[in-house]
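Progress against Task 2.4 (sequence-to-structure conversion) is shown through the following example record, which the project officer requested during the mid-term review.
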Amino acid sequence: MTKHLFLYGGNPSIEKPGRLFAKLAGKEEGRVALLIERRDGWESYLPRYTVPWEKEGLTSVDVVMDEKDGTLDVEAAVKTIREATGIFIGGGNTEHYHALYTRPEIKEAILAKVKSGAPFGGNSAGALIAPETCLISPSDSDDREPKKLEGLGLLTSLAVSVHYTEWNEEKAFRKAMKHAGLKDGIGIDENACVHLKNGRIEEKFGEHVHTVSRSDLLKF
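Structure tokens generated for the chain above:
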């Protein structure tokens, strides 16, 4: 089956990739599992994700998030993912998202759905945890130190950076890639999205998606 990934640098409301994600998820017959973190006023953020989907007729969205005490009902989350026709992970505190959604049971469920052809979308934190190796910038980590963590494994041998231009990430990203032994990467600006098909760039949307290579020979 074809693997479709939509990675956003910071703004999940870009219409064209959102509508394509919804189309691949089944349009009116689709059902998206939206994995986010709990925060005050979380409901007000939902239209940023859902409005483009609704324009393709997809209105069935199941929200997964942690409880007020920070715990996650893993069994319920896995059930929601397995019943979905599309998976989307939102933005926020990247280390918190990593702790919530890369645990083995959830990772296995997401990988199975994507391998079966369900589209995956990730915004900011959700995009960062998508690859096999999750690189967290000092601009984004809780202690302002760079992090190299095990991600979901939806991409192999490819690094991802978000808020790329806005956070002036190029130098830190290249350094992190070198430390992780990764030669190729993509830097996604806040108002941009990249659609990857079977691990290769299919289309870029919005302002800028930067291809980054330690050898400057990155080709897709």
